[in-house]
Design a protein that fits this description.
heterotrimer; A mainly alpha (254); B mainly alpha (256); C alpha/beta (318); A: mainly alpha; 11 helices; elongated; C: alpha/beta; Rossmann fold; Alpha-Beta Plaits; six-stranded mixed β-sheet; disordered C terminus
Chain lengths: 254, 256, 318
């Protein structure tokens, strides 16, 4: 048991090298959600004037979207790195370790959860400077849990794709799902203002509830009613995609 | 001779694209997703005072999707050239008895053709989902013309970046920048309704005129003002970036 | 109990390609087994199956007493693997990689640092230990890879083409290390395309071609099957060849001469036969312009079995 914990810690530390030891390599990923948020709010800012909009200004409304995008991107990057490691042969080394495949996967996925805090922190700082209302401590803690959870979910998805295709060229496949998952929600507008088809999709998309779980603190108070669906969604996705990823790990090389 | 070499290299660029569909997907898929989400989420903004008269928000957004796709095509052309340089294929071309300019003209010319298909994709997509081209056949031809010119200009820009940057990762890092420039234009939203400082920047951003030029024939019958501005902006980009990429090419060949 | 035992081991890919078509082999504990064959013969596929990275589609294999298909975890605890592509992370330093490998193999936390340092010293990388692996030369990477493979003191060590692409000095160093490991009791399964390497290092050699083992045995025994060494002798242009023939005939078996040489003599004692022959010619007043002892090589063995040459036959002698 101790072995497993040490392994997870060691693999997580290694993954952070890519952020810490490659100068400038992580910068696009850290900046992107903020750029997106700034651009989106300067373009569509007037939308907040529509009757039925549930926030005072568009920027506050979409900051949570940026946080989730950062998480999705961190998760996707983990998957792309795995594909690269498979191509390079490094992954063989991990497979030759006498550790259960689930432990190795946990080590790889947990790094995504920590990485997701980087773009998120940057985004929150910029938002704060621009006058966006931040949640209470409880809201912030909840936000952190949800962001890390979604990053881990996306990392599992990225792992599944990486193990299936074994090449970095599969990167767009990983990234596009993250993009779609985060945007086909109440990203830009509340349910009532969405077109019927998008409303239907947003209702069944679990990420919508994660988004609302984060957003509640920004636009108002944190309530249990908006919190439990978010936690359930993240937990459910983690169980499902985690199981799929572990299965893919076990079947790799057969 | 230049024509023959350029044609051969253009055909190569096109074949390369078709044989690797995973490179086509991001070009078109990503702007489609963005288009869908914009329309799905913000259709009601057509009710805002100051929004021009449209059949639907989709009609308004189509030209944004096209512009975005063309920009990504330009970045993609740049990455392709950067990879060629890295792999040494570029040096092989330089050693061949072809006019220097053909080395890059092939890919730029191919972009003109690919752009037409990119634009057609969005037009068809729009029609399927209920948009209408108010300007009729003439309108469609104008959209294709501006798209082709703009696509050529963006590809030239991408090629120029590749010649200056020398490696593919740097060109790839430009990708987020593409978004920034497009956001501070009137591509996605009417200029009058943008917040500052986006509104002022959009006034000077050629992407505004290119998008508006393609948008006009879709949402209304052809008005020559915006259309000519669009053609001029696109043509301007072509001239500027083709010129700059030739200069960059000469510089690279001299230093190599 | 054999260190490695494979029976009818087979790997057929989903595309239908039969990379390995039925391998039987046995490696005794403490042996150095040379697995020799041209590129594409199925060496790497076989190794990957033995180290549990690839599942066999037919047959079975046990390594260190455990079945590779049903007990892969137990196998991994007892084997060390250094694969063809020294799979290292360029952003990490040598010592960081050693310690990561130690952690992955369940070495107790207190022992990790000590063991890592010992092995780094053993392979001669002390000065480079805190440098990023991306700055290492090819030889240094291989050495680190080997050290990493030994961190958990495996019973069986798999080395897949360990000296491909290395300079002669690095190659010799690695050979030294293999000998030392054998002396310490580690079983070494060595894949190579260089017949000299197999000849020099291996206790026994298995030659693979087209997914099957075509011949197996000690290098000496295999070569003896092909033939005995012979002396190729060239005399001065005006020499009395017939006289020379009668002078040397007591020392071996005369063979038909070829275009290039005047005399060809099969000898029984290898290089020990040279001196008597030279003396005999000298006493008869005949001057030797050139002499070469030609011994059968494993390539000759390969040619005899398959009709074609091993690709690595032209590898430079260390």
């Amino acid at each position: 048991m101790r072995d497993s914990w040490l392994t997870i810690r060691a693999l997580t530390a290694r993954a952070m090298n890519e952020v810490l030891r490659v100068p400038g390599g992580a910068i696009p990923g850290i900046l992107a959600p903020t750029i997106f948020m700034l651009g989106l709010s300067s373009v569509f800012g007037e939308a907040a004037r529509l009757p039925g909009f549930t926030a005072e200004d568009f920027r506050t409304y979409i900051v949570p979207v940026g946080l989730l995008q950062g998480a999705a991107f961190a998760g996707a990057a983990t998957g792309v790195n795995m594909a690269r490691d498979i191509e390079r042969g490094w992954f063989d080394r991990l497979l030759l370790a006498p550790q259960p495949r689930g432990v190795v996967l946990a080590g790889l996925v947990s790094s995504a959860a920590f990485r997701s805090l980087l773009p998120g922190t940057f985004l929150v700082i910029v938002a704060l400077i621009l006058g966006v209302h931040l949640p209470s401590l409880l809201g912030i803690l909840l936000t952190i849990v949800l962001i890390m959870g979604l990053a881990a979910v996306m990392a599992c998805w990225g792992s599944v794709v990486a193990l299936r295709f074994r090449t970095q060229q599969a990167a767009p496949l990983i990234q596009i799902l993250g993009f779609v998952a985060v945007l086909f929600t109440t990203a830009y507008a509340p349910f009532a203002l969405l077109t019927p088809w998008l409303r239907a999709i947003a209702h069944v998309n679990p990420v919508t509830y994660v988004l609302e779980g984060i957003r509640q603190g920004f636009v108002g108070d944190v309530t249990w009613a908006d919190t439990w669906p978010a936690l359930l969604a993240v937990a459910g996705l983690l169980v499902l995609l985690g199981a799929w990823a572990v299965r893919s790990m076990r079947r790799f090389g057969t | 001779m230049m024509f023959v070499a350029t044609l051969a290299l253009a055909r190569r660029a096109l074949r390369g694209l078709l044989r690797r569909p995973q490179f086509v997907a991001p070009l078109v898929l990503f702007p489609t997703v963005f288009l869908a989400v914009n329309v799905g989420g913000l259709s009601r903004t057509t009710d805002l005072p100051g929004f021009p008269h449209v059949n639907g928000f989709l009609d308004f957004q189509l030209s944004a999707g096209i512009t975005q796709s063309l920009l990504l095509g330009g970045v993609s052309a740049g990455i392709a050239v950067a990879l060629e340089i890295e792999m040494g294929f570029f040096d092989r071309l330089a050693a061949a008895p072809i006019p220097r300019v053909s080395m890059i003209m092939g890919r730029i010319a191919a972009a003109a053709v690919i752009a037409i298909f990119q634009a057609l994709y969005f037009i068809v997509l729009g029609l399927v989902f209920g948009a209408q081209i108010e300007g009729g056949v003439l309108g469609l031809l104008i959209v294709l013309l501006i798209a082709s010119l703009a696509g050529t200009g963006f590809a030239a820009m991408g090629v120029m970046l590749a010649l200056l940057a020398k490696n593919a990762s740097t060109v790839q890092g430009i990708f987020p920048l593409v978004f920034v420039i497009l956001f501070v234009s009137s591509a996605f939203f009417p200029r009058a309704l943008l917040e500052e400082p986006a509104r002022t920047i959009a006034r000077f951003n050629p992407l505004s005129y290119i998008s508006d030029g393609m948008r006009d024939p879709i949402i209304s019958s052809v008005s020559w003002g915006p259309v000519l501005e669009g053609i001029a902006a696109a043509l301007g980009l072509v001239i500027v970036f083709v010129g700059l990429s030739v200069v960059a090419l000469r510089g690279r060949l001299r230093d190599a | 109990m054999a260190a490695i035992a494979a029976r009818a081991l087979e790997r057929r890919y989903k595309s239908g390609l039969q990379a390995v078509a039925g391998i039987d082999l046995t490696v005794e504990p403490g042996e150095v087994y040379g697995f020799l064959g041209p590129n594409g013969a199925g060496k790497t596929t076989t190794v990957r199956m033995l180290v549990t990275l690839l599942r066999p589609t037919g047959g079975e294999a046990t390594v260190a007493g455990y079945d590779v298909a049903t007990q892969p975890g137990e196998v991994r605890k007892r084997i060390g693997v250094a694969l063809q592509e020294a799979a290292l992370d360029p952003l990490m330093t040598g010592v960081e990689l050693m310690e990561l490998q130690a952690t992955l193999h369940g070495i107790p936390k207190g022992d990790v640092v000590a063991r890592s340092s010992d092995l780094i010293e053993r392979v001669g990388l002390v000065e480079a230990r805190d440098r990023r692996v991306g700055t290492y030369s090819g030889g240094m990477k291989r050495r680190l890879d080997l050290a990493m493979a030994l961190i958990h003191r495996p019973e069986v060590l798999f080395l897949d083409e360990p000296t491909t692409g290395l300079d002669p000095v690095s190659r010799l160093t690695l050979w030294e290390e293999v000998r030392r490991l054998r002396d310490e009791g580690t079983t070494v399964f060595l894949t190579t395309q260089y017949l000299e390497e197999a000849d020099v290092l291996a206790d026994r050699v298995g030659i693979i071609s087209g997914g099957r083992i075509v011949v197996e045995g000690t290098p000496a025994a295999l070569k003896a099957q092909v033939g005995r060494p012979h002396l190729d002798i060239t005399l001065t242009p005006d020499a009395d060849v017939d006289r020379a023939r009668s002078v040397v005939s007591p020392h071996g078996e005369l063979q038909p001469p070829t275009e290039d040489v005047h005399l060809r003599l099969t000898v029984d004692h290898g290089s020990a036969s040279i001196a008597p022959v030279v003396r005999a010619l000298d006493e008869a007043g005949l001057t030797v312009a050139g002499m070469q002892l030609v011994e059968p090589t494993l390539d000759d063995v390969f040619v005899q079995q398959t009709g074609s040459h091993l690709e690595g036959a032209g590898a430079p002698a260390a």
